[in-house]
């Protein structure tokens, strides 16, 4: 059975997508794992970090993106049934075992979903809430169910902020990993996320567990950065913070322009080396958590 992990922070621009694509690539390339990246963000940054825009445009034209799976889960149409197997892009960036479920710039937003569900209810608020919660509970689980056992890891890349797709992804996940920066607003984003997860757990809607927190450094160690890291450590537990930090490195940003993760474009750069080290720590933490290593070549 594969493990589903959400890479999430309610704050934008903290490195969620960069951590997702590089960690997933290293797990497939260096650890011989089967890994699927699911792009749940209408910015499609994970998709465009792994394939050129022309390839994405072709997939969109052929209706081979997450959008089709979301649509048919919400409004099934036997005439146009898409299988997740036809939509997943295999061995992406020529890395064996690294697969992508491409995102789409158009996915249902909460307003459209509310309109749709409202039209299906008996106009009672309770009925509407029941349908809404049931959709949140099932949407991403239903989409991933046919492939979950084919992977070691399924990585979910989210947009910043809270919406139904994000909550549904969190509900479907075994773990969550928080990329953050040592600055006040990123920590606010973590706090808001914790609030949402606490609420989902309170109502027994998910068993998701915090895997860890990864800091992307903002360059030199400032007094503010140290203070923030200490605060995060006190709030979440020191053991939850990855020792590996991701440095700011121009090779990481440049890699996006080549539609490949930095661990492939410039494997000896400081950024790529940090992601390789992060992968080692990720694997080690997971084996420790489960008591025995299920990993090949580790
Ligand atoms: N270590 C790094 N060094 C240099 N640039 C980086 C690094 N990590 C991320 N970036 C760049 O910073 C920007 C934000 O990173 P990223 O897209 O991963 O954040 P995000 O949290 O996914 O953002 P969003 O909330 O918009 O989805 C991107 O342009 C990315 O290329
Ligand atoms: Mg992103």
Question: What does this protein structure show overall?
Answer:
With 298 residues, the chain is α/β, with parallel strands linked by helices. It has one domain (3-109, 142-290): P-loop containing nucleotide triphosphate hydrolases (Rossmann fold, 3-Layer(aba) Sandwich), CATH 3.40.50. 49% of the residues lie in helices and 11% in strands. It has a 6-stranded parallel β-sheet with strand order 3-2-4-1-5-6, sandwiched between helices. Helix 1 (16-31) crosses helix 13, helix 4 crosses helix 7 (125-144) and helix 7 (125-144) packs across helix 8 (164-172). The longest helix has 21 residues, at 270-290. The structure holds adenosine-5'-triphosphate and magnesium ion (MG).
Compact overview of the structure:
The chain has 298 residues and is of the alpha/beta class. Helix content is 49%, strand content 11%. The chain has 13 helices and 6 strands.
Which features does this protein show?
298 residues, alpha/beta, Rossmann fold, 6-stranded parallel beta sheet, 13 helices, 49% helix, globular, binds adenosine-5'-triphosphate, binds magnesium ion
Strand order of the largest sheet: 3-2-4-1-5-6
> How large is the radius of gyration?
19 Å
**What's the total count of β strands?**
6
Query: Ligands bound here?
Result: adenosine-5'-triphosphate, magnesium ion
Low-pLDDT sequence parts:
none
Give the N-to-C terminal Cα separation: 19 Å
